[in-house]
Amino acid sequence: MRNGECDLGVPFHTPDPMKPESFQITVTDAVLDDLRRRLSQTRWGAALPDSGWDHGTSPSYLKEVVAYWMSGYDWRIHEAALNQLPQFVSTIDGARIHFVHQRSRDAHALPLLLLHGWPDSFYRFHKVIPMLASPNRGDNIGDFAFDVVVPSLPGFGFTGEVMRASREQPNRQYAELLWRLMTEVLGYRRFAVAGGDGGSSLAQLLAIDHPESVIGIHLTDLAWHAVNVEPSTLPKHEREYLEHGKKQFMQDGAYIMVQTTKPQSLSPALNDSPSALAAWILDRFHSWCDCDGNIERSFTKDELLTNIMIYWVTQTIGSSMKTYFDETRSPSLTPKDHVNVPVALALFPKDIAGVPPRSFAERTLNVQRWTEMPRGGHFAAWEEPELYANDVTTFFHELHATVSAV
Amino acid sequence: MTQTTITAQPFYVDVPNATLEDLRARLEQTRFADTHDETGWEAGGDSAFLRRLAEYWRTEFDWRAREEELNRFAHFRATVDDVKIHFIHERGRGDKPLPIILTHGFPDSFLRFTKLIPLLTDPASHGGDASDAFDVVVPSMPGFGFSDPPKSDGTTFHIGSMLHSLMTDELGYERYGAHGGDWGSTVTEHLARSHPDSVVGIHLTDVPFWHTFRKPSDLSSAEETHLKRTTDFMMKEGAYAAIQGTRPQTLAHGLNDSPIGLAAWLVEKFQRWSDNNGDVESRFTLDELLTNVMLYWTTETIGTSFMPYYDFTNAGVMRWMLETAKQWKGACKVPAGFALFPRDTSLPPRHWAQRFYDVQRWTPMPRGGHFAAFEEPELLAEDLREFFRPLRAAMQ
Fold first, then answer.
1. Which residue does chain B place closest to A41, by CA atoms?
2. Cβ separation B256–A44 shorter than 8 A
3. Burial of residue B225 (number of CB atoms within 10 Å: 0-12, 13-18, 19+)
4. Which terminus in chain A has less CB density within 10 A, N or C?
5. Is A318:B35 a contact under the CB 8 Å cutoff?
6. Per-residue pLDDT reduced to its tens digit, A218-228
7. Which positions of B are catalytic?
8. Is B355:B100 a contact under the CB 8 Å cutoff?
9. Which chain A positions have a beta carbon within 8 Å of B246's beta carbon?
10. Which of chain B's residues have a Cβ under 8 Å away from the Cβ of A277?
11. A383: closest CA among A151, A126, A83?
12. A335 burial class (0-12, 13-18, 19+ CB within 10 angstroms)?
């Protein structure tokens, strides 16, 4: 059991630890009682002048969320809903990976690995899993279906902290774990990968290190390594994009500075105070959604809290933030790396740094599909599930046809 | 100059029992995440140290005893510009004690100066000369500890003037000296520039960081190095300032709700910025570290202590320079002394300081860090005595 208080459904010992064991989320009553007690004791303190969301999480909205968390939100309903998804754990080289494995009824379905980021979780994809595995659209995509695999990434949620063989290139080691999950554990020879945020980095690493397995990758952003280039070498419109991103970073990127340099100065508070955790995570959802400042236009309180609960009950906010620190110390990707497998970019207008110039993306990626979306933000699969699922399906449907024809 | 009205009232540190009981309950239920990936202080707070600190806090730390020690000083609160300012006021023992105001920064408090105060008020009892005695005033910055928060944001630019009112209107001093570090050096510089006729000299442990934002064209290579180190510091160690400046509310709430969360955020700076060879306890006892944390916890002021960062970020570099320039009233004619402690967060060359000040004393110290008054009170006291000695003589 992790941390001795939260029974997360540890499987029986098995002689073959890689063999997937069925997994159900079962948070104990003690954890929920403790949470309720902490929430009821929240100490609001002398606040800065309430300036809405201008200087961080809105104090009045945070109070509203905490009140709802205590009296309206029912974890058991969401736990039951999450447990409707077929979940498994498999231990690869000592790393116990949690994942959803939603097989399609179509025996020829294309395997698709979906990779989330921070501060979300496997829950990012809860709306698109059924769309991708059991499509029911009357359009020309027909019945193209995926076997969907959604892991909790190393450091996150029901996977939690993963010890690495070395401190070198942690994301590359995690990508290797995911490759082994898809191939050695689940037996897929070739598969597709899609992701955003941290998931975009991992997708690119999978594509670079295993082009024999990855037929193509679908991304919602370029991943942060791409911008570490010397701007003077770039044409004007690309430089402007980088300058815009830099400005954005100066205004709203301090969370990255904390998480890459001092995550363990922050994590004690976030692991000890549920409202602290909510404040830290809600700020990101608010900043990065296409909601005109009204976060609930994009996400319900229940959805926001279920994602926060995945961090709270697993006590993984610290290990999730630590992945930033570890990766910064030994980066797995540089702007010199190039993805050669076909890449689709679905760009949602309110994502963190806006829409990059295609020419800039092509410096690191073999871009075969480029879609600028009419709406949506950073958590596209969650915020605009139809747009997202359609784009993923269209890209891989075409690609699958090409690959199969060869 | 505002009309003189004496508002200072004696003040005693006396935290309600309910606050201490609530704290004990929170410490008992502290939730630490397990990790097999211990990285010491490299990635922020050392989790093994923090567990020990939480345990000590819960079982051994005696706030009432610390409170009694703090109350050996004469504390007051006075209303200045509609804000209640807390301060210690200790009279000097000597012929003509020179009044001096000592201003702290983040993440410390008036506690920074508690070891220094007796050395300054009573030099004769500490191996010095009674003629070097000071009347010492140590305020809590507005928004910190027992001082009320400023009425609105943007106040940071005017703290210097508030403290001048405290020294003159409230306490009746005509001329005085000033010392500070961290935000205290910024406030002290503002004070000197806006009230050069009252401030006989300023003594700082750093050159306020914002001077680095206006880059002169004739930098020496030592200055280039200094500016580069300042930038490096901001990238590697400056995340706290970035988040406190841009998204203070996202962070402040949680630190106010979790005692160990607050301690982790604050204590890491004491570990990082003091001269301790990696062992924070070689410089500060757990009691000292926790007493400082308690001054934030019991007053619930971590959020308002972010105000200077937030004001600075909101104002932007240009407005900050402009506001500062407005207060300059010409050249800085107040004599300035610097004591540079080798493990502080920045070590400017003397000629960098000379661009902004009339530098009359420059002392590179053999040891000590950012919290010099707490780490090396004797070294600092001696430097203050020597710096102000000729200035006292000139006042006669």
1. B257
2. yes
3. middle
4. C
5. yes
6. 999 999 899 98
7. 182, 309, 370
8. no
9. 55-56, 250-252, 254
10. 254
11. A126
12. middle
The pTM assigned to this predicted structure is 0.95
B225/B229 Cα distance (integer angstroms): 6
Query: How many CA atoms, within 13 angstroms, populate the side-chain half-sphere of residue B163?
Result: 40
Q: Cα–Cα distance between B304 and B252 in angstroms, integer?
A: 8
Residue range A350-359: mean pLDDT, rounded: 94
Q: Which residue among A251, A271, A325 sits closest to B246, beta carbon to beta carbon?
A: A251
Identify the pLDDT of residue A45. Answer: 77
Q: Give the tokens for residue B68.
A: 């009694």
Q: What is the DSSP secondary-structure string of A239-306? A: HHHHHHHHHHHHHH-HHHHHHHH-HHHHHHHHHH-HHHHHHHHHHHHHHHSSSTT-GGGT--HHHHHH
State the pLDDT at residue B37.
86
Cα(A109)–Cα(A107) distance, integer angstroms: 6
Contact A147, A104 (CB under 8 A): yes
Helix (H) / strand (E) element for A90: namely strand A87-92
Single out the residue of B58, B53, B66 nearest to residue B14, CA to CA: B66
Per-residue pLDDT tens for B162-193?
Answer: 999 999 999 999 999 999 999 999 999 999 99
Catalytic residue (one of A378, A388, A391, A400): A378
pLDDT at B38: 85
Of B43, B50, B301, the CB nearest to A268: B50
- Which tens digit of pLDDT belongs to each residue from A27-86? 999 999 999 999 999 998 766 677 899 999 999 999 999 999 999 999 999 999 999 999
Residues 116-155 of B with CB under 8 A from A: 149, 152-153
Cα separation, B76 vs A273, in Å, equals 34
